[in-house]
Design brief:
The chain is mainly beta. It is about 0% helix and about 55% strand.
Length: about 725
Amino acid sequence: MLKQPTPDPAAAVPAISVPDAPPPPAGEEQVQFEADSIQYQNDSDVVTALGNVILVQKEQSVRADTVTWNRKTGQIIATGNIRFVDEDGNLLLTDRVELTDELKAGAISNMLLVLREGGRLAARSGQRDDNGRVILTDAAYTACSVETSTGCPKNPSWRITAVRVIYDPVKKKVRYKGAHLEILGIALPLPLLAHKTDSSGGSGVLVPSLRLSRSNGVELEQGYYVRLDESRDLTLSAHLYTKVLPMIAAQYRQLTDLGAFQITGYATRSPLIPVGQPGGTSQNDFRGYLDANGRFQLSPQWSFTSSTRLATDRTFLRRYDISRDDRLRSSANLERIDSDSYFSLAGWTTQTLRSGDPQGQVPVALPVIDYRRRLNDPLLGGRIQLQANTLGIVRGDGQDTQRAFAKAQWDLRRITGLGQEVTLTALVRGDVYHSDENDLTPTVLYRGEPGWQTRGIATAAVDIKWPLVGALFGGTQVLTPRFQIVASPHLRNLTVPNEDARAIDLEDSNLFALNRFPGYDRVEDGVRFTYGLDWQLERPGWRVSTTIGQSYRLTNRPQLLPDGTGLTAKTSDIVGRTEVRFRDLVKLTHRFRLDKDSLAVRRNEFDAAIGSNRTYIEAGYLRLNRNITAIEDLQDREELRLAGRLAFKRFWSVFGSGVFNLTDRQEDPSFNSDGFDPLRTRLGVAYSDDCLEMSFTWRRDYVGTGDARKGNTFLVTFGLKNLGFR
């Protein structure tokens, strides 16, 4: 019987009837096949299929040049250009394989197994045992591609060779005996190696990392990953040092029906040198860090989010290179959100890690309650937003403040016949404050008057935009003049404490805000006019936008707005922003503030990112020239940030970054700086392809605090696909 082969091996193929062939057992699907020709030998009871043989059963298929079936022994042997696809989608390439009557592979020779999840197993010989595991002899495994994008063969970046390999297709796991890891031609022994072949992860030893720092000496980090089940895992790690005692760390993660959370902890014993006493010493003390966070969606509207970050001392995170944060914030927030309302019950506390920053002056906020509701205006067709808010601030050695307010805001937006966008706003708010120990706040401007204080706020505003659209340079430009009037009566601002509206600075983002103070505790009063324009040009690949503006106030309030903020006089400084983008290759942003009288630059900020993902340069520059020295939130600063990566050859690159303090003693008397002080620099070389990552990094810290000493740190990392990346 002859049939033409079908192009799809998984397609249904009519079964070939062989004389006296026994029917398949009940419930068992028959093997279907086709071939160019069929031979049947009566004396030996052997059926031979020749030429383009295809065998199919359920999700399995076999292609071969020749297949012989011994009906007496049940042995099936396929030979010649075999492509065997099992029920899991794994592809076996070989020249000879023994098959069962259920198309299960038995003995195999000179084979290549291409796993569906990624990775390849090649072996001199193999055998499938009764449990379905594939046992290979003289085998090699790699997760790398062995062909280029044009189909040419190439050597993998790494592979694992072993005397014996056991692959379990059910657990998606490979175990080795007598294994060696070969990376770019260098062989390393790996006893008792096992790993998963998919992305689900499995329990086992993680790839180590090596670091050298001045504070701790040589550091070797070795971790062990435990997959508890599909929704929980645990990572344990040991950090060994040549200069200090070891440190242990653990991370637990869990996914629940309502959300997810994770808990990370570090613990060790080491000498603790107090901050501000570089020559001091101490005995070994317990030191550690806890970082826990989670989010839970209790219902479609209700959610709960929490975060806890605590360290035993101010220098632990920097000394052990865990984090560069100078504050650790812990918070909890219960929220309800629907289409027209918002409710939040929150609290937070902060641990300061800054030298010379008293912990007793750091606030604890509890409770922080905020409720908002939006309503449609049935009379004029506008939108009404109601808000109620309360805040409690407690300090161990400082001022305590409680605040509550209720607010109603009405907005009406209309488009005129000439295309102007007009927005009318009316706002009323009532505040109640209580504070004590106000004299413990160092900045007098922030204290307010002790005891109970009240304040009423009323604001009216008109905002007009007029977009003008036209063609320019082969693209489309939009020029939008904007004018705004905001009026509020005189307010008792300085009688109430200022907890959340301290770092005021006129910039493009708050130029047209109803209140240019951040937060709620300070509100701009009087009548002011704000004017400016936005311009935008879009053409294929390009986008250019710019904003510039200024405001004029009928009265000035120097006691509320310190000189240097750009808002003290009747006429404000000039602020603006320009952004240029070209595809994904160029992004340039410039922000500025010019003195209204001398046009001196009071704020000058550049951010630039140029290049592709492999080769790029990033630069950031900020200078705040406000000439304010008495208020810590408004002091002058000048800083430069640089980062870049240069790719060479195909997979190699060099990278570097640096942060430089350019503030001198004239700008900030508290800085003992000559105007150019590096804070941190980094330089390294890396290799990265489809399955291997390696890097060598040198970093230098120029500022030391306590036992977190300044100096050099060297870090070596590498990661292998399917074996874990660091």
